[in-house]
């Protein structure tokens, strides 16, 4: 398999649910020492929408790099179990995000999404909260 191998940690953060929300992506590219960090403020939404939007941001960046192998680590059990087909997507608000993420994951030669405990996802959480903090300071 040619192409880059990525490990992507994603997280969404909300202050309230729904509430002001941010997303964070902490990415390691095999062969590179420095991790790549991405984050964005996404307005008021639910925590589950923020989790999906963080995943989509990570997939955006993976596509830009032409990744051949993507491993996504997320602490949202709902997102991981929906993506892996263990839970149905009952929320109409999540369905388009789920369909987009599923389609895009299938476009990589190798992709998997794995649940990790929150304490193992601190870097992505830090970035998601940084997005909210920076937005708050700019108001």
Oligomer: single chain
Strand content: 25-35%
Strand order of the largest sheet: 3-2-1-4-5
Instruction: Compute the CA-based radius of gyration.
Output: 14 Å
Estimated helix fraction: 25-40%
Distance between the termini: 47 Å
The number of helical elements comes to 4
Number of strands: 5
- Please, what is the average pLDDT? 97
Class from helix and strand fractions: alpha/beta
The helix/strand series, from N terminus to C terminus, equals: EEEHEHHEH
Low-confidence stretches: none
Biggest sheet, in brief? Answer: 5 strands, mixed
Q: Based on Cα principal axes, name the global outline.
A: globular
SSE map:
Elements: E1 4-14, E2 19-29, E3 36-45, H1 47-64, E4 67-74, H2 77-83, H3 95-106, E5 110-115, H4 122-138
Parallel strand pairs: 1-4, 4-5
Antiparallel strand pairs: 1-2, 2-3
Helix pairs in contact: 1-3
Question: Which key features would you list for this structure?
Answer:
139 residues; alpha/beta; five-stranded mixed β-sheet; 39% helix
What does this structure look like?
- The chain is of the alpha/beta class and 139 residues long.
- Helix content is 39%, strand content 33%.
- It has helices spanning 47-64, 77-83, 95-106, 122-138; strands at residues 4-14, 19-29, 36-45, 67-74, 110-115.
- It has a five-stranded mixed sheet.
- It starts with a strand and ends with a helix.
- The mean pLDDT is 97.
